[in-house]
Design goal:
Helices cover about 5% and strands about 65% of the residues. With about 325 residues, it is mainly beta. Strand 23 and strand 24 form a beta hairpin.
Length: about 325
């Protein structure tokens, strides 16, 4: 694998760079010492990506992203080129008005529009699907509303199906679960609540007057998740109760996860344990070990350079008694 990485590094060094390019990175991902993915990125003067290339070596599929920016250094468009078995290209355009950002994407008979506010929060999205003759047959609209404090978020989704025919034999298709009347109807509503620290404390989703998901979350004074319960009422009802405990021993943080039969369960069963380093760089622990039933099933190690940039990520996991290894190598190059 090392020879392959050296070859790709030399290939990457020969890629043409615009004169204003100051920085580029390469990420090589491997599994069991076999190169799986490669990601190459070039940046401009403002450390914004201008070209990204993702290579899937097992299938020889390549995705190229080309980024353009306006004179205010705001993203103006993204061109995506997919090479390989399913070759295609699509473009996302960005428009700016007042404090709103609007993105428009056209791809394979679909038109997607998304609007974000000045905090980069989604406030509106629209998705349309067209048949091969250009006729609209499905349209969905999602609207998002926020409280003044930003702690309450409400999503409302509307959709409509329009009658369409099967192009092979002209048989009418009526989508399951849809109203074939060309009119919008309320599909779902979601309400998300947060505390003052920004932690999610409640999620409620419904269709009409029927609630199909309700979740509650609790955090400690360090904003760590300590308990949650999730109730799903869609179809066969399912209820999940989980709590977490934390313990500091030397340079190790221990996080225990328990399953409960109900919220008042006094004898919860230990499900998993994660041990990780107290020391973190950029919010990431240097190492982590995962256990289920006292058996080691996973291991993660991170290595950083003197600039606190990650240069190596090693991951090991055990499944059905067999261990597998994944590794990512990061290369950074700067230019005057």
């Amino acid at each position: 694998m090392k020879n392959i990485i050296l070859f790709l590094a030399m290939l990457y060094a020969t890629l043409s760079l615009s004169q204003d390019t100051l920085f580029r990175t390469a990420i090589y991902s491997s599994k069991n010492d076999t190169l799986v993915n490669t990601t190459l990125t070039q940046y401009n003067d403002f450390y914004q990506p201008i070209v990204e290339i993702h290579i899937q070596h097992s299938t020889n599929d390549t995705i190229e992203y080309i980024y353009d920016y306006n004179i205010q250094q705001k993203r103006s468009q993204i061109i995506t080129n997919r090479l390989g078995k399913n070759e295609r290209s699509d473009t996302i355009f960005y428009e700016y008005k007042d404090t709103l950002v609007k993105s428009i994407q056209r791809e394979n008979g679909k038109l997607r529009i998304r609007v974000e506010d000045h905090l980069q929060r989604p406030i509106y999205s629209s998705s349309k699907s067209f048949d091969i003759n250009g006729n609209l047959y499905y349209h969905r609209v999602d609207s998002v509303f926020y409280s003044d404090s930003g702690r309450l978020r409400t999503n409302k989704s509307y959709q409509k199906y329009i009658q369409r025919t099967n192009h092979k034999d002209d048989i009418l298709i009526e989508p399951i679960g849809g109203k074939v009347n060309g009119q919008f109807y309320l599909f779902s509503t979601s309400i998300l609540r947060k505390d003052k620290a920004g932690n999610v404390i409640e999620l409620k989703s419904s269709s009409g007057d029927e609630i199909y998901t309700h979740a509650l979350y609790t955090h400690d004074d360090q904003n760590r998740l300590t308990y949650y319960e999730v109730h799903n009422y869609h179809g066969a009802s399912k209820h999940n109760y989980t709590k977490f405990e934390y313990e500091n021993i030397g340079d190790t943080l221990i996080r225990k996860r328990y399953h409960l039969t109900n919220r008042d369960d006094k004898t919860p069963s230990l499900y998993s344990v994660i041990k990780e380093s107290q020391r973190k760089i950029n919010g990431e622990p240097l190492w982590q070990f995962g256990y289920v039933n006292n058996e080691l099933i996973g291991e993660v190690r991170r290595y950083f350079n003197k600039d606190d940039q990650i240069i190596r990520l090693q991951m090991k996991s055990k499944k059905n008694g067999e261990w597998s290894e994944n590794e990512q190598l990061y290369i950074y190059e700067s230019y005057e």
